[in-house]
Structure formats: structure tokens, C-alpha cells
Design brief:
The protein has 9 helices and 9 strands. It is of the alpha+beta class. It has a 9-stranded mixed β-sheet, with helices on both faces. A hairpin with a 2-residue loop joins strand 2 and strand 3. The radius of gyration is 46 Å and the shape is rod-shaped.
Length: 430
């Protein structure tokens, strides 16, 4: 094959191209039984699950997963294991062809895995199920005595899918596992693998979506309290004559900080719930169900019970977003009012300072006038003493006349000197 010269590959090209082939369905041939575990790890999961899978492979001397792998499958004696790591959880699928036809769920494939390894798996069990796939005749009732015995006579949900019938009760039994029964009439191994994977993913993502429901219920109660508190603040804001605006601003900023903290804390959970709910709906559509008489389909059962929960989650998320916006507007309005109040107070303060400055100026001018009079008195007195001395020395001048003549000149000189000093100070201030 001719290799063409091209620009360098994007660093993610190979990984993104392979993503479309990630986690492919396994071809499955009935009869078989499956044990399925979903372990919640949170979005910050470490590599502990990869280490656990590696340890399991080493126990059976199987090829371990590669470093950084997110998917692994291997045959461990009679059991095939499939491990997948997702953003918030890891899931394990254990498949065995050998089944006990009389009591299939009494010896599931997970029981063949060492107990110590099972007990020490990291994470928390969020979902667990056993799936029994058996051959079934082309014609015949979907529900017979064997089906009733498997599900203990409980109410069933199911439908025709591809070339078979899938049934479940959506209940957890005494062993902690849900149960599915797939009666394979004409499905190919690859079809059977896709249908089984679709059913398990439908229920897995149903549980993942419902993780937001307890959060929404708790947050809904809190939002009711916070909305009442915001209503009280806005009522006080409307009563402008009596409102303590600084105190209100402190209260509303604390409330806004609390709501923003909860918004950032729960935004991921609510967004993830919406995404998981979309996947549930997609998996149900992919089943292409056909109704079995007297049974609810998976779509009907899931939508009737999951849709109200998702509506609750959506409503609480919208209330949280709406309250955040209302708080931002109220804070902005109150901040503007506080700023206007402070501006008015500042203007009054400046006016008072201007009045005081005028009074000080008048007082200063009065003091200056008194100072000129006092200094003139002393200077004229000195001139009088000098004239008296001249009279003693024989100078023919009358001291009283000289004092009288000097007064205007002394006053003018002092006034000129004070004016010059004032102009010098004004220039220095500029």
C-alpha cells in the first residue's frame, strides 16, 4: 500500500478513532448465565479497579490488562470476565455457559470467583443483576411455570426484542441481585450480546440517573427556606424608609454565596442525571420492543417511574439556577441603593465641611483684622517712643503727631505683608 505524505497526526487521533469500537458487545450463545456488578467510584476514581482486575487475571494466570486500560476481557476457567471503567463507576460482567436448569440463580458465575477478591473490590455496589439466557421455542407462551418459578410469582415487565423475549421484575431478591430472563428464539450470538448489553445498560443508567433524586429532594427543601428568606429581604428592600441597607446587603450576599456554593456543588450531579436519562431512553429505543400480552413494556415501566423523578431533578436544578439569577439582580439593586445612600451622605458631609471652611475663613479674616490692629498698636507705640527720644535729643517733632501720621502707613504695610503671605501659601498649595 502506498504511504502518502501528510501533516503530523493530532495527538488524540488514534484514541478518538478507536472510541467508536470501545466496549463492543460480546457474541453470546444460549444457554448461559451472567452476573453483573456496577461499583460506584465517583468522578475521581483511582486505578484501584485496574489493579483489582490485574490481580484477578494473575490468579488465573491470564494475560493482565495493559497499563491505563479502561476495558478488559478474558477467560478465567469456565467464566468469561468483562471489565469496563467509566467516568463514575466500573462494571464487571461474568459469563458462564454451564447452568443449572432447575435452580440457575443458586450458583451464578460470580460464585466461581474467589470470595476474598470479591469482598475487597473498591467502590460501592450501586447495581447488581443476574441474567439467564435460555433457548425457547418459536411459538408458545412468553410466561409459563418456569418463568413464574424464576421470578417468584412477582409482577413482571417485558417485551419481545429482536428474536426473543426479555423479562424482569425490576426487584432485588434476597441475594441482593435483580433478575433478567432472556428467552432466545432466533437471535444470532451477536444479536443476543447486543440485547443483553442494552438491557443491562438501560438499568445501569437508570440507577445512575436516579443518584440525583435524593440530592434534589434535600435541596428542594433547602431552596424553599432560601426562597422565603429572599422574599423577606426583598420586602424589606421595598420598605425603603425603614430598611437597614447595609445589614440587608450583608444578608443577601451571604445568601448568594450559599446558593452559588450549592449550585457549583450539585451542577455536575444534575447535568450527569440528564445525560444518563438520555442514554436510558436511547437504550430502550434500541431494543425495538414489541408488546407481550398483559405485560408492561420496558419503555412504559421505566418512563412511568423514571420520568417523574427526572422531572423533579430538572425542576430543582431550574429553581437553583433561577434563584441564583434572582439573587444576582437583588444584590445589584441593593448595591446600587447603598451606593446612592453613601453618595448622598458624602454630599452632605462635603456641604458641612464647606460650611465649616467658610466659617473658618471668616474667623481667620476677623483674627487677621484684630492682629493688624494689635500689631499696629505696638508698632505705633514703638514709633512714639522713638519720637520721644528724638524730642529729648532736641529734634523739633511732636511725638503725638508722628504717631498719628504713622498709623495709616503701618496698617497699609501690615495688610500688604499679610496679602503677600496668603498669595504665597495659595501658590504652594497649587
Amino acid at each position: 500500500m502506498t504511504m502518502l505524505t501528510l501533516p503530523p497526526d493530532h495527538k488524540e487521533r488514534i484514541r478518538l478513532s478507536a472510541e467508536v469500537h470501545a466496549r463492543p458487545p460480546q457474541p453470546l450463545a444460549a444457554p448461559l448465565i451472567v452476573s453483573y456488578l456496577v461499583l460506584y467510584t465517583g468522578p475521581d476514581a483511582s486505578d484501584s479497579h485496574l489493579q483489582a482486575v490485574t490481580a484477578l487475571a494473575q490468579l488465573y494466570k491470564a494475560t493482565p490488562p495493559t497499563e491505563g486500560a479502561t476495558h478488559y476481557t478474558a477467560h478465567l476457567d469456565k467464566v468469561r470476565v468483562i471489565w469496563e471503567r467509566h467516568t463514575e463507576y466500573c462494571r464487571y460482567t461474568f459469563i458462564r455457559q454451564d447452568i443449572d436448569e432447575h435452580a440457575p440463580f443458586e450458583s451464578p458465575p460470580l460464585a466461581d470467583i474467589p470470595e476474598d477478591w470479591r469482598a475487597n473490590l473498591p467502590g460501592e455496589v450501586l447495581y447488581a443483576a443476574h441474567v439467564l439466557m435460555v433457548h425457547a421455542p418459536e411459538e408458545g407462551p412468553a410466561i409459563d411455570d418456569a418463568v413464574k418459578r424464576i421470578f417468584g410469582g412477582g409482577e413482571l415487565v417485558g417485551s419481545k426484542i429482536a428474536g426473543g423475549v426479555a423479562l424482569t421484575s425490576f426487584r432485588s431478591y434476597s441475594d441482593g441481585f435483580n433478575r433478567f430472563l432472556i428467552r432466545n428464539r432466533s437471535m444470532s450470538p451477536l444479536q443476543a450480546g447486543r440485547q443483553l448489553q442494552g438491557l443491562l445498560e438501560m438499568d445501569t443508567y437508570r440507577m445512575m440517573a436516579l443518584l440525583a433524586l435524593p440530592v434534589a429532594r434535600e435541596l428542594g427543601k433547602l431552596l424553599t427556606e432560601r426562597e422565603q428568606e429572599l422574599a423577606g429581604i426583598t420586602r424589606e428592600m421595598a420598605d425603603g424608609d425603614h430598611a437597614d441597607e447595609s445589614g440587608l446587603l450583608d444578608r443577601i450576599t451571604r445568601l448568594e454565596a450559599d446558593i452559588e456554593r450549592r449550585h457549583s456543588q450539585h451542577y455536575y450531579r444534575f447535568s450527569a442525571a440528564s445525560a444518563y436519562y438520555g442514554i436510558v431512553q436511547a437504550r430502550i429505543r434500541e431494543l425495538r420492543e414489541q408488546r407481550v400480552e398483559n405485560l408492561q413494556t420496558f419503555a412504559e415501566f421505566i418512563e412511568r417511574r423514571l420520568a417523574p423523578a427526572m422531572n423533579t431533578v430538572t425542576a430543582v436544578a431550574e429553581r437553583l439556577e433561577s434563584m441564583s439569577k434572582h439573587l444576582a439582580r437583588a444584590t445589584q439593586l441593593l448595591s446600587t441603593r447603598v451606593a446612592l445612600t453613601q453618595e448622598q451622605q458624602s454630599r452632605k458631609l462635603l456641604e458641612a465641611m464647606a460650611r465649616r471652611a467658610k466659617l473658618q475663613l471668616r474667623l481667620q479674616q476677623t483674627v487677621e483684622g484684630l492682629s493688624i490692629a494689635a500689631i499696629t498698636y505696638y508698632v505705633v507705640g514703638l514709633i512714639g517712643y522713638a519720637a520721644e527720644g528724638g524730642e529729648v535729643l532736641g529734634v523739633p517733632l511732636d511725638p503725638k503727631i508722628i504717631q498719628a501720621i504713622s498709623i495709616p502707613f503701618v496698617v497699609a504695610g501690615l495688610a500688604w505683608s499679610l496679602a503677600r503671605v496668603r498669595r504665597a501659601l495659595e501658590k504652594a498649595e497649587e
